[in-house]
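Consider this pair:
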Amino acid sequence: MFSTPHWFKFAAPAAFYPLAGKMIPWFWALAALFGFIGLWLGFVVAPIDFQQGEGYRIIFVHVGASWMSMFIYLVMAFWAAIGLSFHTRLSGMMTEALAPTGALFAFLSLWTGAFWGKPMWGAWWVWDARLTSELLLFFLYIAFIALTRAIDDPRRADKSGAILVLASVVNVPIIYFSVRLWNSLHQGASVSLTRSPSMAAIMLWGMLFCALAMWMYSIAVSLTRVRRIILEREQQTEWVKHLLSPVTATAP
């Protein structure tokens, strides 16, 4: 007989709820710490770029937001696959909890990209391959949120949302490789695993710390949101009733 892994018990909402509550303060603290370091390096320590001037500093927000918009959709696809394969209730809750944060970062990626593009390209928007595929990602987040909220039955909503995410996750590698596949105004990756970074070290560290801050923020806010979703969906269970019941003291 094979024993069930100890960590697998956290797939149950009743076990995951208190674990998430313990982790949330740590991730908020890390988000604040990394955010302070990243913004300080990016907006105070890093020098002015000799080509783009002060305008390049938008990358300290734009790059991390773009990375997180893609990464969160991949994580949603992971939870969607787990949910469809093993029918775990927590999977659908996690996918639902992640979607608003992913949509936020997709919007920030588009907005900061336009803010940078106006002085650099002379236009707020061009139908560039990467910009267009990122816009499609934003619409996919909105479509997922609208679809799951339009279905009253949580099980059906989770299944429909999971199918949508898995069917459209191919857009993420399209975004990433778009500058290689098509002629693009968008610059190539500044950070690569196969070559040295194309920016000064202090700029790179500022960008990475800002990205880490966004990552920690995403975890913290998603865990906070999933705890609310768990309480809403599990409100008829005994453990939630006990958790929400007021504690009354009895006189001795």
User: Anything to note?
Assistant: The CA atoms of residues 45 and 214 lie 20 Å apart. The helical segments are 13-45, 59-86, 89-121, 129-150, 154-168, 171-181, 201-233, 238-244. The chain has eight helices and no strands.
